[in-house]
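Async update (no meeting this week)

Hi team, since we skipped the sync, here's where things stand on the single-chain job. The sequence we agreed to prioritize is pasted below, unchanged from the tracker. I ran it this morning and attached the output directly underneath so nobody has to dig for it. Comments welcome in thread, and please keep replies under the output.
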Amino acid sequence: MDITTIKLEKETKKRLERLKIHRRETYDEVIQKILSILNVCKANPFQARIKLDEIDKIREKLRR
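Output:
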């Protein structure tokens, strides 16, 4: 696996942090999730909304 370093503004990093489902999720996993949802959104915006709702439900369960 090739790994690279990218520069992010602190605000961007904070936003990515808030999108994590769990604490140990990597930024790469978060970005891949975002890209996946964007691809779904192109083909079917309704399906993308369902995916986002599923992620929100998982996050809520983990916070309890």
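Quick observations from my side:
Residues 45-63 form the longest helix (19 residues).
The helical segments are 10-19, 27-43, 45-63.
Reply here if anything looks off.
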